[in-house]
Specification:
Layout: H1 3-8, H2 36-39, H3 42-56, H4 79-106, E1 156-157, E2 164-165, H5 169-179, H6 201-227, H7 236-247, E3 251-260, E4 264-271, E5 284-290, H8 302-305, H9 320-339, E6 347-351, E7 354-358, E8 361-362, E9 365-366, H10 377-396, E10 410-413, E11 416-419, H11 433-450, H12 459-467, H13 476-497, E12 501-502, E13 512-513
Antiparallel strand pairs: 1-2, 3-4, 4-5, 5-7, 6-7, 8-9, 10-11, 12-13
Protein backbone atom coordinates (compact mmCIF):
# COMPACT_ATOMS: atom_id res chain seq x y z
CA UNK A 1 0.00 0.00 0.00
CA UNK A 2 1.13 3.44 -0.82
CA UNK A 3 2.43 5.13 2.25
CA UNK A 4 0.84 8.38 1.12
CA UNK A 5 -2.57 6.78 1.00
CA UNK A 6 -2.07 5.22 4.43
CA UNK A 7 -1.05 8.50 5.90
CA UNK A 8 -4.02 10.29 4.33
CA UNK A 9 -6.57 7.71 5.52
CA UNK A 10 -6.96 8.92 9.10
CA UNK A 11 -7.66 12.41 7.80
CA UNK A 12 -10.68 11.18 5.87
CA UNK A 13 -12.73 11.09 9.10
CA UNK A 14 -15.16 8.53 10.45
CA UNK A 15 -17.55 6.72 8.17
CA UNK A 16 -17.73 3.87 5.78
CA UNK A 17 -14.91 3.28 3.37
CA UNK A 18 -17.18 3.23 0.27
CA UNK A 19 -18.08 6.89 0.84
CA UNK A 20 -14.56 8.01 -0.05
CA UNK A 21 -14.79 6.19 -3.40
CA UNK A 22 -18.32 7.31 -4.34
CA UNK A 23 -18.24 9.07 -7.76
CA UNK A 24 -21.21 11.26 -6.71
CA UNK A 25 -19.63 12.42 -3.56
CA UNK A 26 -17.82 15.69 -3.00
CA UNK A 27 -14.15 15.50 -4.03
CA UNK A 28 -11.50 15.76 -1.43
CA UNK A 29 -9.55 18.95 -1.97
CA UNK A 30 -6.23 19.56 -0.45
CA UNK A 31 -5.11 23.13 -0.03
CA UNK A 32 -1.49 23.89 -0.82
CA UNK A 33 -0.13 26.78 1.04
CA UNK A 34 2.11 29.24 -0.94
CA UNK A 35 3.54 32.60 -0.28
CA UNK A 36 2.69 35.92 -2.02
CA UNK A 37 6.08 35.96 -3.72
CA UNK A 38 5.30 32.63 -5.39
CA UNK A 39 1.95 33.96 -6.67
CA UNK A 40 3.57 37.06 -8.22
CA UNK A 41 6.41 35.11 -9.82
CA UNK A 42 6.44 35.18 -13.65
CA UNK A 43 8.42 31.97 -13.76
CA UNK A 44 5.65 30.15 -11.89
CA UNK A 45 3.03 31.55 -14.29
CA UNK A 46 5.00 30.33 -17.32
CA UNK A 47 5.39 26.87 -15.81
CA UNK A 48 1.67 26.63 -15.04
CA UNK A 49 0.76 27.76 -18.56
CA UNK A 50 3.17 25.26 -20.07
CA UNK A 51 1.65 22.45 -17.98
CA UNK A 52 -1.84 23.35 -19.15
CA UNK A 53 -0.73 23.42 -22.81
CA UNK A 54 1.01 20.06 -22.48
CA UNK A 55 -2.07 18.55 -20.84
CA UNK A 56 -4.39 19.92 -23.56
CA UNK A 57 -2.11 19.20 -26.59
CA UNK A 58 0.19 16.40 -25.65
CA UNK A 59 0.92 15.51 -29.33
CA UNK A 60 2.34 18.92 -30.31
CA UNK A 61 6.11 18.89 -30.44
CA UNK A 62 7.75 21.92 -28.97
CA UNK A 63 9.55 24.10 -31.51
CA UNK A 64 13.15 24.71 -30.82
CA UNK A 65 13.96 28.26 -30.07
CA UNK A 66 15.92 29.93 -32.86
CA UNK A 67 18.14 32.94 -32.83
CA UNK A 68 15.16 35.30 -32.41
CA UNK A 69 15.56 38.54 -30.62
CA UNK A 70 13.71 38.27 -27.35
CA UNK A 71 13.86 39.91 -24.03
CA UNK A 72 15.94 37.05 -22.68
CA UNK A 73 18.94 37.32 -24.99
CA UNK A 74 18.91 41.08 -25.79
CA UNK A 75 19.24 43.76 -23.26
CA UNK A 76 16.48 46.22 -24.26
CA UNK A 77 17.20 48.50 -21.41
CA UNK A 78 20.01 50.11 -23.44
CA UNK A 79 18.87 53.07 -25.60
CA UNK A 80 21.88 52.61 -27.86
CA UNK A 81 20.87 49.05 -28.67
CA UNK A 82 17.29 50.11 -29.49
CA UNK A 83 18.53 52.90 -31.75
CA UNK A 84 20.81 50.53 -33.65
CA UNK A 85 17.99 48.04 -34.15
CA UNK A 86 15.64 50.75 -35.48
CA UNK A 87 18.35 52.14 -37.74
CA UNK A 88 19.04 48.69 -39.17
CA UNK A 89 15.36 48.18 -39.94
CA UNK A 90 15.14 51.62 -41.57
CA UNK A 91 18.20 50.92 -43.72
CA UNK A 92 16.70 47.67 -44.97
CA UNK A 93 13.47 49.38 -45.97
CA UNK A 94 15.44 52.13 -47.69
CA UNK A 95 17.47 49.59 -49.69
CA UNK A 96 14.29 47.79 -50.73
CA UNK A 97 12.87 51.09 -52.01
CA UNK A 98 16.07 51.71 -54.00
CA UNK A 99 15.75 48.32 -55.67
CA UNK A 100 12.15 49.07 -56.64
CA UNK A 101 13.23 52.40 -58.13
CA UNK A 102 15.98 50.68 -60.13
CA UNK A 103 13.59 48.22 -61.71
CA UNK A 104 11.01 50.93 -62.36
CA UNK A 105 13.51 53.15 -64.19
CA UNK A 106 15.40 50.45 -66.04
CA UNK A 107 12.46 48.38 -67.21
CA UNK A 108 13.42 46.48 -70.37
CA UNK A 109 16.15 48.92 -71.36
CA UNK A 110 19.49 47.59 -72.51
CA UNK A 111 21.29 50.29 -70.51
CA UNK A 112 20.54 50.22 -66.79
CA UNK A 113 21.43 52.35 -63.84
CA UNK A 114 22.30 51.29 -60.31
CA UNK A 115 21.86 52.88 -56.89
CA UNK A 116 24.49 50.62 -55.33
CA UNK A 117 26.47 53.57 -54.00
CA UNK A 118 23.43 54.88 -52.12
CA UNK A 119 22.58 51.68 -50.25
CA UNK A 120 22.93 51.59 -46.46
CA UNK A 121 23.23 47.85 -45.83
CA UNK A 122 25.71 45.59 -47.58
CA UNK A 123 24.24 42.77 -49.66
CA UNK A 124 25.33 40.04 -47.25
CA UNK A 125 23.68 41.91 -44.36
CA UNK A 126 20.33 42.29 -46.09
CA UNK A 127 17.61 39.74 -45.45
CA UNK A 128 15.33 41.11 -48.19
CA UNK A 129 15.08 39.20 -51.43
CA UNK A 130 16.00 40.86 -54.70
CA UNK A 131 12.85 39.47 -56.32
CA UNK A 132 10.45 40.95 -53.76
CA UNK A 133 9.35 43.97 -55.78
CA UNK A 134 5.82 45.31 -55.77
CA UNK A 135 4.56 45.15 -59.40
CA UNK A 136 2.45 48.25 -58.86
CA UNK A 137 5.62 50.30 -58.44
CA UNK A 138 7.00 49.20 -61.80
CA UNK A 139 5.94 49.46 -65.41
CA UNK A 140 5.24 45.75 -65.62
CA UNK A 141 1.59 44.78 -65.66
CA UNK A 142 0.97 41.08 -64.85
CA UNK A 143 -2.38 41.23 -66.68
CA UNK A 144 -0.83 42.53 -69.90
CA UNK A 145 0.85 40.38 -72.49
CA UNK A 146 4.58 40.78 -72.74
CA UNK A 147 5.90 42.64 -75.74
CA UNK A 148 8.10 40.72 -78.15
CA UNK A 149 11.73 40.65 -77.21
CA UNK A 150 13.97 42.96 -79.16
CA UNK A 151 16.67 41.67 -81.43
CA UNK A 152 20.23 42.42 -80.24
CA UNK A 153 22.25 45.04 -82.04
CA UNK A 154 24.20 42.39 -83.89
CA UNK A 155 21.03 41.58 -85.81
CA UNK A 156 20.54 37.90 -84.94
CA UNK A 157 20.08 35.56 -82.01
CA UNK A 158 20.92 31.92 -81.61
CA UNK A 159 23.59 29.79 -83.20
CA UNK A 160 23.81 27.27 -85.98
CA UNK A 161 20.46 25.96 -87.16
CA UNK A 162 18.62 27.91 -84.47
CA UNK A 163 19.82 31.30 -85.69
CA UNK A 164 17.08 33.94 -86.09
CA UNK A 165 17.73 37.25 -87.85
CA UNK A 166 15.86 40.53 -87.52
CA UNK A 167 14.25 39.85 -90.91
CA UNK A 168 12.50 36.74 -89.69
CA UNK A 169 8.83 36.72 -90.70
CA UNK A 170 7.55 35.83 -87.24
CA UNK A 171 9.77 38.36 -85.45
CA UNK A 172 8.85 41.16 -87.87
CA UNK A 173 5.16 40.29 -87.60
CA UNK A 174 5.18 40.50 -83.82
CA UNK A 175 7.13 43.77 -83.90
CA UNK A 176 4.61 45.31 -86.29
CA UNK A 177 1.80 44.23 -84.00
CA UNK A 178 3.48 45.91 -81.05
CA UNK A 179 4.05 49.10 -83.07
CA UNK A 180 0.33 49.47 -83.67
CA UNK A 181 0.00 50.66 -80.07
CA UNK A 182 1.66 53.91 -81.15
CA UNK A 183 -1.28 54.80 -83.39
CA UNK A 184 -3.74 57.52 -82.39
CA UNK A 185 -6.12 56.61 -79.53
CA UNK A 186 -9.10 56.95 -81.89
CA UNK A 187 -7.70 54.17 -84.09
CA UNK A 188 -8.85 50.88 -82.54
CA UNK A 189 -6.19 48.17 -82.92
CA UNK A 190 -7.43 45.54 -80.46
CA UNK A 191 -5.34 43.13 -78.44
CA UNK A 192 -3.04 41.95 -81.19
CA UNK A 193 -0.22 41.06 -78.80
CA UNK A 194 -2.48 38.86 -76.68
CA UNK A 195 -3.67 37.00 -79.78
CA UNK A 196 -0.06 36.68 -81.01
CA UNK A 197 -0.98 38.46 -84.22
CA UNK A 198 1.73 38.68 -86.87
CA UNK A 199 1.39 41.54 -89.36
CA UNK A 200 3.42 41.68 -92.53
CA UNK A 201 5.26 44.87 -93.43
CA UNK A 202 2.87 45.60 -96.28
CA UNK A 203 -0.22 45.38 -94.08
CA UNK A 204 1.41 47.40 -91.28
CA UNK A 205 2.45 50.20 -93.64
CA UNK A 206 -1.06 50.37 -95.09
CA UNK A 207 -2.60 50.56 -91.62
CA UNK A 208 -0.09 53.21 -90.55
CA UNK A 209 -0.84 55.38 -93.57
CA UNK A 210 -4.59 54.98 -93.02
CA UNK A 211 -4.27 55.90 -89.34
CA UNK A 212 -2.35 59.10 -90.17
CA UNK A 213 -4.82 60.11 -92.88
CA UNK A 214 -7.77 59.52 -90.54
CA UNK A 215 -6.09 61.62 -87.84
CA UNK A 216 -5.56 64.51 -90.27
CA UNK A 217 -9.11 64.24 -91.61
CA UNK A 218 -10.51 64.26 -88.07
CA UNK A 219 -8.52 67.42 -87.29
CA UNK A 220 -9.85 69.12 -90.42
CA UNK A 221 -13.43 68.19 -89.63
CA UNK A 222 -13.03 69.46 -86.06
CA UNK A 223 -11.65 72.76 -87.34
CA UNK A 224 -14.53 73.15 -89.79
CA UNK A 225 -17.18 72.24 -87.28
CA UNK A 226 -16.01 74.16 -84.27
CA UNK A 227 -13.99 77.14 -85.42
CA UNK A 228 -14.72 77.92 -89.05
CA UNK A 229 -17.38 79.41 -91.26
CA UNK A 230 -17.68 77.03 -94.16
CA UNK A 231 -18.77 78.05 -97.64
CA UNK A 232 -22.46 79.00 -97.62
CA UNK A 233 -22.74 77.80 -94.03
CA UNK A 234 -22.02 79.04 -90.53
CA UNK A 235 -20.56 77.47 -87.44
CA UNK A 236 -22.62 77.05 -84.23
CA UNK A 237 -21.29 80.24 -82.61
CA UNK A 238 -22.10 82.36 -85.65
CA UNK A 239 -25.53 80.75 -85.92
CA UNK A 240 -26.20 81.69 -82.29
CA UNK A 241 -25.32 85.33 -83.01
CA UNK A 242 -27.73 85.39 -85.95
CA UNK A 243 -30.49 83.79 -83.86
CA UNK A 244 -30.06 86.47 -81.20
CA UNK A 245 -30.42 89.22 -83.81
CA UNK A 246 -33.61 87.66 -85.12
CA UNK A 247 -35.03 87.09 -81.63
CA UNK A 248 -34.26 90.71 -80.68
CA UNK A 249 -36.30 91.92 -83.65
CA UNK A 250 -33.35 93.60 -85.36
CA UNK A 251 -33.73 91.23 -88.31
CA UNK A 252 -37.01 89.89 -89.60
CA UNK A 253 -35.67 86.84 -91.39
CA UNK A 254 -32.49 85.60 -93.09
CA UNK A 255 -33.18 84.44 -96.64
CA UNK A 256 -29.89 82.92 -97.76
CA UNK A 257 -26.36 83.37 -99.07
CA UNK A 258 -25.76 85.87 -101.87
CA UNK A 259 -21.97 85.94 -102.12
CA UNK A 260 -18.92 84.03 -100.97
CA UNK A 261 -15.32 85.12 -100.94
CA UNK A 262 -11.91 84.22 -99.64
CA UNK A 263 -12.43 85.95 -96.31
CA UNK A 264 -16.19 86.29 -95.80
CA UNK A 265 -19.66 85.02 -96.60
CA UNK A 266 -22.51 87.48 -97.28
CA UNK A 267 -26.16 86.69 -96.48
CA UNK A 268 -29.35 88.56 -97.33
CA UNK A 269 -31.86 89.42 -94.62
CA UNK A 270 -34.94 91.57 -94.14
CA UNK A 271 -34.59 94.28 -91.53
CA UNK A 272 -36.76 94.53 -88.47
CA UNK A 273 -37.29 97.18 -85.83
CA UNK A 274 -34.53 98.93 -83.93
CA UNK A 275 -34.51 99.13 -80.15
CA UNK A 276 -33.65 102.84 -80.32
CA UNK A 277 -35.56 105.46 -82.27
CA UNK A 278 -32.48 107.32 -83.53
CA UNK A 279 -31.25 104.29 -85.46
CA UNK A 280 -33.18 103.19 -88.55
CA UNK A 281 -32.71 99.68 -89.90
CA UNK A 282 -33.05 99.48 -93.70
CA UNK A 283 -35.72 97.16 -95.11
CA UNK A 284 -33.09 94.90 -96.69
CA UNK A 285 -29.78 94.10 -95.01
CA UNK A 286 -26.56 92.36 -95.95
CA UNK A 287 -24.91 90.23 -93.26
CA UNK A 288 -21.18 89.88 -93.77
CA UNK A 289 -19.78 86.96 -91.78
CA UNK A 290 -16.00 86.88 -91.70
CA UNK A 291 -14.57 83.39 -91.91
CA UNK A 292 -12.98 82.34 -88.68
CA UNK A 293 -10.35 80.15 -90.35
CA UNK A 294 -6.85 81.55 -90.36
CA UNK A 295 -5.86 80.23 -93.77
CA UNK A 296 -7.09 83.29 -95.64
CA UNK A 297 -5.63 85.77 -93.16
CA UNK A 298 -2.07 84.48 -93.04
CA UNK A 299 -0.87 86.86 -95.75
CA UNK A 300 -3.25 89.72 -94.97
CA UNK A 301 -2.00 90.73 -91.54
CA UNK A 302 0.17 93.43 -93.13
CA UNK A 303 -2.99 95.48 -93.68
CA UNK A 304 -3.72 95.67 -89.97
CA UNK A 305 -0.53 95.13 -87.98
CA UNK A 306 1.03 98.36 -89.37
CA UNK A 307 -2.19 100.38 -89.20
CA UNK A 308 -1.71 103.00 -86.50
CA UNK A 309 -5.34 102.69 -85.44
CA UNK A 310 -4.98 99.01 -84.55
CA UNK A 311 -1.23 98.54 -84.11
CA UNK A 312 -1.33 98.57 -80.32
CA UNK A 313 -4.07 95.94 -80.22
CA UNK A 314 -2.54 93.66 -82.81
CA UNK A 315 -1.06 90.51 -81.29
CA UNK A 316 0.58 87.61 -83.03
CA UNK A 317 -0.13 85.44 -80.02
CA UNK A 318 -3.93 85.79 -80.43
CA UNK A 319 -4.55 85.18 -84.12
CA UNK A 320 -8.28 84.59 -83.79
CA UNK A 321 -8.79 88.07 -82.44
CA UNK A 322 -7.45 89.41 -85.74
CA UNK A 323 -10.66 88.31 -87.46
CA UNK A 324 -12.81 90.36 -85.08
CA UNK A 325 -10.44 93.29 -85.49
CA UNK A 326 -10.78 92.89 -89.26
CA UNK A 327 -14.57 93.25 -89.00
CA UNK A 328 -14.19 96.23 -86.68
CA UNK A 329 -11.80 97.85 -89.14
CA UNK A 330 -14.33 97.58 -91.98
CA UNK A 331 -17.01 99.13 -89.76
CA UNK A 332 -14.82 102.16 -88.98
CA UNK A 333 -13.83 102.59 -92.64
CA UNK A 334 -17.46 102.44 -93.82
CA UNK A 335 -18.42 105.01 -91.18
CA UNK A 336 -15.75 107.41 -92.46
CA UNK A 337 -16.89 106.95 -96.05
CA UNK A 338 -20.53 107.42 -95.12
CA UNK A 339 -19.76 110.67 -93.30
CA UNK A 340 -17.90 111.93 -96.38
CA UNK A 341 -20.87 111.17 -98.66
CA UNK A 342 -19.21 108.36 -100.61
CA UNK A 343 -21.74 105.77 -101.87
CA UNK A 344 -21.17 102.69 -99.72
CA UNK A 345 -23.20 100.30 -97.51
CA UNK A 346 -24.58 101.77 -94.30
CA UNK A 347 -23.42 100.11 -91.10
CA UNK A 348 -26.23 98.77 -88.90
CA UNK A 349 -24.46 96.81 -86.15
CA UNK A 350 -21.32 94.80 -85.47
CA UNK A 351 -21.33 91.66 -83.33
CA UNK A 352 -17.91 90.06 -83.00
CA UNK A 353 -17.12 88.87 -86.56
CA UNK A 354 -20.63 89.51 -87.96
CA UNK A 355 -21.22 92.88 -89.63
CA UNK A 356 -24.77 93.92 -90.60
CA UNK A 357 -25.01 96.55 -93.37
CA UNK A 358 -27.58 97.95 -95.77
CA UNK A 359 -28.21 95.86 -98.85
CA UNK A 360 -27.05 97.26 -102.21
CA UNK A 361 -29.69 95.84 -104.55
CA UNK A 362 -33.41 95.17 -104.61
CA UNK A 363 -35.72 92.24 -103.84
CA UNK A 364 -32.91 89.91 -102.75
CA UNK A 365 -31.04 90.53 -106.02
CA UNK A 366 -27.64 92.12 -105.34
CA UNK A 367 -26.34 94.90 -107.53
CA UNK A 368 -23.97 93.61 -110.23
CA UNK A 369 -20.25 94.17 -110.04
CA UNK A 370 -18.72 96.66 -112.41
CA UNK A 371 -16.92 93.84 -114.22
CA UNK A 372 -20.21 92.03 -114.93
CA UNK A 373 -22.33 94.94 -116.13
CA UNK A 374 -22.38 96.25 -119.72
CA UNK A 375 -22.40 100.04 -119.77
CA UNK A 376 -22.70 102.48 -122.60
CA UNK A 377 -19.85 104.83 -123.43
CA UNK A 378 -21.58 107.67 -121.60
CA UNK A 379 -22.19 105.57 -118.49
CA UNK A 380 -18.62 104.25 -118.59
CA UNK A 381 -17.26 107.80 -118.79
CA UNK A 382 -19.62 108.86 -115.99
CA UNK A 383 -18.48 105.95 -113.86
CA UNK A 384 -14.81 106.83 -114.44
CA UNK A 385 -15.15 110.41 -113.25
CA UNK A 386 -17.23 109.28 -110.30
CA UNK A 387 -14.56 106.81 -109.25
CA UNK A 388 -11.87 109.47 -109.69
CA UNK A 389 -13.85 111.81 -107.43
CA UNK A 390 -14.43 109.02 -104.86
CA UNK A 391 -10.72 108.14 -104.76
CA UNK A 392 -9.86 111.78 -104.08
CA UNK A 393 -12.53 112.01 -101.37
CA UNK A 394 -11.38 108.76 -99.86
CA UNK A 395 -7.76 109.98 -99.74
CA UNK A 396 -8.23 113.60 -98.64
CA UNK A 397 -11.47 113.64 -96.63
CA UNK A 398 -11.55 110.13 -95.18
CA UNK A 399 -7.75 109.83 -94.95
CA UNK A 400 -7.99 106.31 -96.39
CA UNK A 401 -6.61 104.23 -99.22
CA UNK A 402 -8.86 101.41 -100.45
CA UNK A 403 -5.87 99.06 -100.98
CA UNK A 404 -7.95 96.59 -103.05
CA UNK A 405 -9.85 98.80 -105.49
CA UNK A 406 -10.80 97.09 -108.73
CA UNK A 407 -13.85 96.29 -110.84
CA UNK A 408 -14.52 93.36 -108.48
CA UNK A 409 -15.14 95.64 -105.47
CA UNK A 410 -17.33 98.24 -107.20
CA UNK A 411 -21.08 97.78 -107.73
CA UNK A 412 -23.33 99.53 -110.29
CA UNK A 413 -26.67 100.48 -108.73
CA UNK A 414 -29.15 103.29 -109.41
CA UNK A 415 -26.92 104.73 -112.12
CA UNK A 416 -23.82 105.19 -109.95
CA UNK A 417 -20.86 103.30 -108.53
CA UNK A 418 -20.84 101.95 -104.97
CA UNK A 419 -17.68 100.97 -103.12
CA UNK A 420 -17.64 97.78 -101.04
CA UNK A 421 -15.12 95.58 -99.24
CA UNK A 422 -13.05 98.15 -97.35
CA UNK A 423 -11.84 95.88 -94.56
CA UNK A 424 -8.27 96.10 -95.84
CA UNK A 425 -8.33 99.89 -96.33
CA UNK A 426 -5.50 101.73 -94.57
CA UNK A 427 -4.46 105.29 -93.92
CA UNK A 428 -1.94 106.99 -96.24
CA UNK A 429 0.53 107.02 -93.34
CA UNK A 430 0.65 103.22 -93.43
CA UNK A 431 4.17 101.96 -94.24
CA UNK A 432 2.78 100.59 -97.53
CA UNK A 433 -0.11 103.03 -98.00
CA UNK A 434 1.27 104.74 -101.12
CA UNK A 435 2.13 101.39 -102.70
CA UNK A 436 -1.48 100.27 -102.19
CA UNK A 437 -2.71 103.52 -103.72
CA UNK A 438 -0.49 103.07 -106.79
CA UNK A 439 -1.81 99.54 -107.22
CA UNK A 440 -5.41 100.81 -107.03
CA UNK A 441 -4.63 103.45 -109.64
CA UNK A 442 -3.17 100.81 -111.94
CA UNK A 443 -6.28 98.60 -111.64
CA UNK A 444 -8.69 101.48 -112.28
CA UNK A 445 -6.68 102.90 -115.16
CA UNK A 446 -6.33 99.55 -116.93
CA UNK A 447 -10.03 98.74 -116.55
CA UNK A 448 -11.33 101.98 -118.01
CA UNK A 449 -8.70 102.11 -120.74
CA UNK A 450 -9.86 98.66 -121.85
CA UNK A 451 -13.46 99.90 -121.57
CA UNK A 452 -12.85 102.57 -124.19
CA UNK A 453 -12.67 105.67 -122.01
CA UNK A 454 -10.31 107.98 -123.89
CA UNK A 455 -10.07 110.44 -121.01
CA UNK A 456 -8.74 107.75 -118.63
CA UNK A 457 -5.37 108.70 -117.13
CA UNK A 458 -2.52 106.24 -116.78
CA UNK A 459 -1.57 104.93 -113.37
CA UNK A 460 1.14 107.55 -112.66
CA UNK A 461 -1.04 110.49 -113.66
CA UNK A 462 -3.96 109.07 -111.71
CA UNK A 463 -1.75 108.61 -108.64
CA UNK A 464 -0.65 112.28 -108.73
CA UNK A 465 -4.24 113.41 -109.29
CA UNK A 466 -5.54 111.45 -106.29
CA UNK A 467 -2.70 112.01 -103.82
CA UNK A 468 -1.84 115.59 -104.80
CA UNK A 469 1.83 114.66 -105.02
CA UNK A 470 3.77 115.75 -108.08
CA UNK A 471 6.15 112.86 -108.58
CA UNK A 472 7.97 113.37 -111.88
CA UNK A 473 9.57 110.18 -113.11
CA UNK A 474 10.15 109.00 -116.63
CA UNK A 475 9.44 105.31 -116.02
CA UNK A 476 7.49 103.19 -113.58
CA UNK A 477 10.59 101.88 -111.78
CA UNK A 478 11.79 105.34 -110.77
CA UNK A 479 8.21 106.28 -109.90
CA UNK A 480 7.87 103.40 -107.44
CA UNK A 481 11.34 104.15 -106.04
CA UNK A 482 10.23 107.66 -105.12
CA UNK A 483 7.06 106.26 -103.56
CA UNK A 484 9.10 103.88 -101.40
CA UNK A 485 11.37 106.75 -100.37
CA UNK A 486 8.37 108.78 -99.20
CA UNK A 487 7.05 105.79 -97.26
CA UNK A 488 10.42 105.26 -95.61
CA UNK A 489 10.60 108.92 -94.62
CA UNK A 490 7.12 108.76 -93.13
CA UNK A 491 7.84 105.53 -91.21
CA UNK A 492 11.08 106.87 -89.72
CA UNK A 493 9.38 110.07 -88.62
CA UNK A 494 6.50 108.24 -86.97
CA UNK A 495 8.81 105.87 -85.14
CA UNK A 496 11.07 108.67 -83.90
CA UNK A 497 8.50 111.34 -83.06
CA UNK A 498 5.15 109.57 -83.11
CA UNK A 499 3.80 112.08 -85.65
CA UNK A 500 2.23 111.40 -89.03
CA UNK A 501 3.18 112.92 -92.35
CA UNK A 502 0.73 114.90 -94.44
CA UNK A 503 0.84 113.67 -98.03
CA UNK A 504 -1.51 116.35 -99.35
CA UNK A 505 0.97 118.94 -100.65
CA UNK A 506 -0.10 120.04 -104.11
CA UNK A 507 3.29 121.09 -105.39
CA UNK A 508 6.44 119.09 -105.93
CA UNK A 509 7.97 120.03 -102.58
CA UNK A 510 8.70 117.29 -100.05
CA UNK A 511 5.82 116.42 -97.70
CA UNK A 512 5.46 118.62 -94.65
CA UNK A 513 5.00 117.41 -91.10
CA UNK A 514 1.92 118.09 -89.05
CA UNK A 515 3.00 119.51 -85.72
Amino acid sequence: MDPVGVAAAPDAGPGPAWQSKCPWGAPNTTSISCSLADVMSEQLAKELQLEEENAAFPEVVAVAEGPFITGENIDTSSDLMLAQMLQMEFDREYDAQLRREEKKINGDSKVSISFENYRKVHPYDSDSSEDEVDWQDTRHDPYRADKPTTTPRKGFIGKGKDITTKHDEVVCGRKNTARMENFAPEFQVGDGIGMDLKLSNQVFNALKQHAYSEERRSARLHEKKEHSTAEKAVDPKTRLLLYKMVNAGMLETITGCISTGKESVVFHAYGGKSATEDKVIPPECAIKVFKTTLNEFKNRDKYIKDDYRFKDRFSKLNPRKIIRMWAEKEMHNLTRMQNAGIPCPQVVILKKHVLVMSFIGQDQVPAPKLKDVTLSSEDMKKAYYQILNMMQQLYKECNLVHADLSEYNMLWHDGKVWLIDVSQSVEPTHPHGLEFLFRDCRNVSQFFQKGGVAEALNERELFNAVSGLNITADDEVDFQAEIEALEKMNEDHVQNHGKKLSMSSSDGDPPIYDE
